[in-house]
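Colleagues,

Please find the record for the four-part complex below.
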Amino acid sequence: MIKAGVIGATGFSGIELVRLLAEHPQVEISLLTSQTYAGMNISEVYPHLSGKVDCILSDLDPEQVVAESDVIFIALPHGHSAGVVKEAYNQGKKIIDLGADFRLKSAEDYEKWYKTEHTAQELLEKAVYGLPEVHRVKIKDADIVANPGCYPTSVILALMPALKENLIVTNDIVIDSKSGVSGAGRKAKVGMLYSICNESISAYGVASHRHTPEIEQELTNIAGEKVNLLFTPHLTPMTRGILSTVYVKLKKTLSLEEVRGIYEEAYQDEYFVKVLKPGIWPGTKLVAGTNNCFINLTLDERTGRLVVVSVIDNLIKGAAGQAVQNMNILFALEEKTGLTNTAVYP
Amino acid sequence: MIKAGVIGATGFSGIELVRLLAEHPQVEISLLTSQTYAGMNISEVYPHLSGKVDCILSDLDPEQVVAESDVIFIALPHGHSAGVVKEAYNQGKKIIDLGADFRLKSAEDYEKWYKTEHTAQELLEKAVYGLPEVHRVKIKDADIVANPGCYPTSVILALMPALKENLIVTNDIVIDSKSGVSGAGRKAKVGMLYSICNESISAYGVASHRHTPEIEQELTNIAGEKVNLLFTPHLTPMTRGILSTVYVKLKKTLSLEEVRGIYEEAYQDEYFVKVLKPGIWPGTKLVAGTNNCFINLTLDERTGRLVVVSVIDNLIKGAAGQAVQNMNILFALEEKTGLTNTAVYP
Amino acid sequence: MIKAGVIGATGFSGIELVRLLAEHPQVEISLLTSQTYAGMNISEVYPHLSGKVDCILSDLDPEQVVAESDVIFIALPHGHSAGVVKEAYNQGKKIIDLGADFRLKSAEDYEKWYKTEHTAQELLEKAVYGLPEVHRVKIKDADIVANPGCYPTSVILALMPALKENLIVTNDIVIDSKSGVSGAGRKAKVGMLYSICNESISAYGVASHRHTPEIEQELTNIAGEKVNLLFTPHLTPMTRGILSTVYVKLKKTLSLEEVRGIYEEAYQDEYFVKVLKPGIWPGTKLVAGTNNCFINLTLDERTGRLVVVSVIDNLIKGAAGQAVQNMNILFALEEKTGLTNTAVYP
Amino acid sequence: MIKAGVIGATGFSGIELVRLLAEHPQVEISLLTSQTYAGMNISEVYPHLSGKVDCILSDLDPEQVVAESDVIFIALPHGHSAGVVKEAYNQGKKIIDLGADFRLKSAEDYEKWYKTEHTAQELLEKAVYGLPEVHRVKIKDADIVANPGCYPTSVILALMPALKENLIVTNDIVIDSKSGVSGAGRKAKVGMLYSICNESISAYGVASHRHTPEIEQELTNIAGEKVNLLFTPHLTPMTRGILSTVYVKLKKTLSLEEVRGIYEEAYQDEYFVKVLKPGIWPGTKLVAGTNNCFINLTLDERTGRLVVVSVIDNLIKGAAGQAVQNMNILFALEEKTGLTNTAVYP
């Protein structure tokens, strides 16, 4: 059994991690930390875990959590991981950071977009961007896995086949993403109150969202040339899910069948990514509660653009589920272990 | 492997059954029928099943479905089960009817409340009311399991301990239930449109809902004396879940601790039913997607009433999950097999 | 023009008051205060008011607000009104308090249920409970109007005709209310986050909610004998609206027509209260955005109970709209002035 | 008083028209027709109108409705207006068609996108596209007003200032729109059930939606050169509202202040259109229940694109409200008459 510790266990990503780890056949939870609820049983904070997870939440003591765990999941806001990551790295323990601290290869980019100093720059090169469908081989041997952001996961999976095959113009990419409110986390904020969010969709972080450089970095890697894109997220009145609608220009004329063929081939061996049949446009609910990504696409002959739509559950494939998928790779388990459930629908 | 056929596989209860059966370790789906979608692959109707269930939907041929199955689940509206049930009974196959046709012991009551003739009255005495927490022993040997209604499940579990111990006045019971919209099924009705249901709660079937005699029958059985109750359901702007608030009068003075003790003891060995800690009032989301029932209660000293609140997922413990639980009992499997998942929260 | 000041203008009740006052043909807003946003233009906090209300929010200075206003609306949490109320009373200005401080006639009850000292007890006898359908005549001459709570408004209107006519048993009343989330106000709390509230209904304040003594006080007044009741509120996944389902026992046998007749007569001259036709059970959406209360009822012959269902918009008839209705009475305007809009449906 | 008839009064656009007309100070409803509910009082179908509109619904008799009305509003699905429009035109009565039949100037385009024959082609040239902010002068004298589609309204208002000033590249326009479910109308369809729509956002009509040629026609008119665009609508889990996010390329380098200046100037005299302050991105809830359109925009220097976000209420500015605005123009009333209410928020 793998001993897994979760730092920040009571945020929304944290609690999904706890659920997935508790149901994972080869994991034993070693330690859960929570700044807010230390000392309480996690099932008092989250009664849906009653009878499933009985664990007293601890204050964060980096030495202790590293000592007691084989793998440490960090589910903290960005800027808070350095201490634990250093300790874990020094003790040779595996780290999966769900925050943003190790996603950008460039500390300069990090400091520009996140407006905070990066205090563990020396470890950036040890980190692997944990999108298994792209970096599976490298993840296997990584010390630190930088678990991707939720939006980037949905966008990179939507564009990887097209970029890999050099189909699209790399400086004319428009990405319009729609996220459920849980993406904003569990912190009490007026803007995330039910009464404010319900019956309203709005754009935010327009032309300035921090996931922009992350998406560009990864798409640039895949394309082999500089990608430049415009990314606009929207807050949508639903708890779960991200839908990304991606608009790109083809470099040359292709039929829809050819493009579909490339996507289907790219994902034919991927357990979690599925290209739906023509005409079936995925809603986020189809993947809610799962580690799946559903994709469909079409060509608009009138404008010469390819439209790709992808959906994920922001807290699972976009956070906790992908983290478990990465853990499975790190520990040489079957990649889908503990992640095979179907969506509860409707 | 148990060969399971589902009749009416594309309704909301049907599709949940399909999901649960597909994930069940000891079941093989033999046949799925659908009046509306016969000839289509079920994953075209429900893309969340893509890659999980590949099965062409059939027209209903009672002989065929009985011949090919060890157990037949019927997920049809009331009044449509007689043909298959007779065929299955005659062939010695197990039947689990999610509809209302075999729940009421009295054909007269059935015809009064459902305003339709009962065409298989001779089989009523072969049917066992499939609430395992009450009738587990009888279910084991049943030919026909009448799977309980969603409201009755939530109410009976809320009152069983109190009635069994003779704590409450049996003719002064007020039940106020709130259900998500999925309880109304997948049929297109104006009243169930998103735009009509959203941002609105309303009462319906006031003093006339068909689950009233079902609840009374079962509570009367448990109490050993005639129970008379008032039941009012409400349509609530959410997809899943039932919350029942039950107001009863104590026969004699008891402390809250005494009543809690009785409830905790009654359910201490039940995997699916949980009495939450004092002060934690369950929301429906805590059990969404699971076969669980969470309960809490308090005494109102000012009026001498006991208030019990229970929550279930109407499509799982209130339908498909309980049906699988019954199948597990019928086939001598561990009762919780295939039903152990935790709620996806939030 | 009446000069109206609003204290606590940026809470949910406050902002509805501002909207209603801005659209009122005989009101001029004199001053809006806000602890959190003092110094900002209200349309920066609430952009829906852009071009409608241009007003810089002030810090609360009781002398100033009283000096500049003919009527002062207080939309603060309970326990914060004493200072302004005293100042206004001394200066002979009219006060409408949307909080709870002047609703209970007994300071002892107040201190027991609200667990805080009452610091303006000498003014309790000057306050009139501002439910116009009950206390219209007294309100006309009141100095202080205690604007009713949202739940009490829905419940008192549901029971007034029956109690006035002495139809029902006064110590056997069960009230099950369901409220939208806006009732909890605009304060950032984890429990009111979209992701927590959505897709979940739950009970709270069971047998302990502070509106209990308020409802009892008023029903006792109407009945002319001590009323004892059990009140249970539920948090419902919608922004607006309260639906109260009230279960009472008839003192003697009456036909449904007789009871309906009593209700219809009681409300025939009320502009805002409407008894719907038989069989049309009101959803909260029917009154959203309005000052209306819709009611329907039936008799359950099986249990001898009368079931009354009422719906209001918690922020309008349950708060700001009723406050404006009270102002209209205080200033001898037509009572419906500024409150005649129809619900925006669906 | 203007005598107004509404054909198709019980659809969602129809019922909003009825509400607005009933509250309009210079209108008297002459006749309401409904195929489904003819013979019933409208307040039985829509109880929120109880006490506000008492009118028996009629079958559609074109001669009668034209004879009894000064203006006829048609709120039918496309393809059903020809008969009434011809009759009204011949009798010299004003027509406002909320359907799509008279929006496209080219019958060929109509038949290509709507896949049905146009049976009143001779009247196409009599119709004026009823977006007052663009065609106010022509509307004044129109016989037939083609009330714009909901999506086109939100998009044209978002782009008009930029196109008028020749700021943007006309063949590189990406439009990503998100609509509430009420846009799909009141017809019972499985895909519009609460349980299907809730907690899910999805794209539909990708690269094929019928509003595409309508938007292109109008933008081409404004730009004075051929506009070619890609339009993708999304079904969003909310009842009301459209948010359109529009991505365009600037023809030359401009500062954000310059572009904002052009937008602010363009709309400075428009009562219903408002450019919000920098950084305040409008949510659909800000305009729900109103005839307003709120806009904001920014420049993305990284990609040289302008991003414009607009929000409207799809049933008001996107349908019934705009129809009343058009009526006001036709009858030389102040344009905002009956349309000045503020959003009910939250």
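The mean pLDDT of chain D is 97.

Comments are welcome before we finalize the supplementary table.
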